[in-house]
């Protein structure tokens, strides 16, 4: 279970100033960005002990290594204190160098697996804790050493002990991304049916559900997931379970919903054909959730970690829309408030998380592309002026918003007239002067649609000094832009 | 409450759904676009569904955020306030690489340097009237001829209406009566009047040759200059002739390299005499306005071009 409200300074120690912490975070972020560019973005999770608040690593490595060796020795002799030794071992294995020492000892893993599958339940728990620490190791050789344990870990997923199951799941989740060989093995050993069964049987236990979500998301992030893993997941009962978990439990918090939402995102972005998920009502689920989240955000009730949930939901909705046939759209969606919610998200996150605003704009584009009803809603609910105010913002926001406005204009001449009345013409006089070529081309396209919609619009444009603007554009270095300006002037504004 | 209007819309729920449905039937009321009937219509926007794959760059920030959370590095307050960037504006005129952060700067730049610029000599004049007068007096040989017989040099002060037989007389008038400084920028005496005429004769045969008083920019500008210098010889009315030529020039996509083709085109339409010519502009614009290279002057060293 992840406690979001505590600021965890994983990299920091007491002596670090605020500035140093900031610097470390920035460096960490930079490393993650580079990893993403290299398609190597991978994370592991550490489930802390119940008595732990922060991940603590003993600084004393040498004694840690000694401990490992001596503990192993003690464990090889069966006796009443085995579980105490095993507990001590699990604590020692938090340290990376101790981890390395462990795997280098002969038969260490064999011993551990034996204890994992033995008759002593307490020992099993400590043993899985040991494996969990090993699975989280930053050292490359360590985690793969846990492979002999995987068939057992998978078997235990159908068990009923919740803490134990959680540890098994997070251990498996940490092992997944290590290599293709590991994934192959896990798939062959039936990880997907095991996860499906687990989430079904343990549905009331949200901590376990969260763990299943995490493990599944690790599998789905694989580079070749689309070919092998995704089809298997879609064929199982997992999609309906994931969707059912999406509605967050107010007492437990967002965490399980977050994991399942990310799983759904990895599923929807991998395939062009989302029929399976659509048939389970994914579109409806995602959009109604976003409507309630939009409402909360508009009221100013931003629950901690909300954007971690909103982000994958937006992506699911966006990609589901792109594979939903237009005629089914109204049946699947039904509620026009989704456009209100998206506008609320746009406004709320523009300053703090522009990337989220950009993703919201993308979804709005997919919503308005082929739906006259939703375009009409944007107009009647007076949401257009708010969108127009976003046109100064670059890095993909204004181009996407302009696409949305273009989608509206494209539907009907009547919509064009309304857009013009709400200030789009004067906004275009500004966007036509922007440095971004895409903005200029899109602006010309929108202008064209507005101008041909009626004489009042073209008159208004001329009144706002549009002719001299277009004449200047005729000297632009891009041929396509010049062509458009000339065409507009000669065919539509001069005659 | 941050956005009360939106909250209201979201909570009013089904009432909204109904009213929107009444306005339009779902999706099938798309009107056929007029553009399909037009010839040579360059506008081709169609609404597009955009599918984004897992590794798309649009998803980068969200993915990083997610992984920071997985690695227990999540904090609700952003460490560094993300910079929301605003689009820049850039001058459209090909060859001018000026970039601006506000619309006002753009407008000021354009109005100062491009709006009333003489193509023939790259001089930027502050108003349409002064540009007219400049072109008349400097680049119109008809004017020179007429000036020998009548008072043609207008007083520069609007509303004065007086005319003089030489520019010197006008200048004296400006200084004595209107208290202008003797070195008024927009009343330079023109040099080399005779040599200019001779050069114009030469130009008829070699349109590619660049002459002193003709601006040295590329592309459309150069062609227009050629066109302009041709007009007095042809003895046709200034305005319409230029319109027609300009129309030809601009209709061919003026690329900055292809002025060879353009001048050929201009050449071929030299004798349009009997054709009915549409006025190019429905409002008053100096007929010889041209936007050329000269605008870079004064704004050199600006960062970045239009991307």
Automatic annotation (TrEMBL), chain A:
SUPFAM superfamilies in UniProt: ARM repeat
Origin: domain of life: Eukaryota
SMART domains for this protein: ARM
Coiled coil: 18-45
InterPro entries: ARM-like, ARM-type_fold, Armadillo
Keyword line: Coiled coil, Membrane, Transmembrane
Protein name per the record: Transmembrane and coiled-coil domain-containing protein 6
Annotated source species: Cottoperca gobio (Frogmouth)
Name of the encoding gene: tmco6
UniProtKB/TrEMBL annotation, chain B:
UniProt region (Disordered), positions on chain: 251-279
Chain ranges of the C2H2-type domain: 91-114, 155-178
Superkingdom: Eukaryota
InterPro entries xref list: ZNF511, Znf_C2H2_type
The name this protein goes by in its record: Zinc finger protein 511
Organism: Cottoperca gobio
Lineage per the UniProt record: Eukaryota, Metazoa, Chordata, Craniata, Vertebrata
Gene: znf511
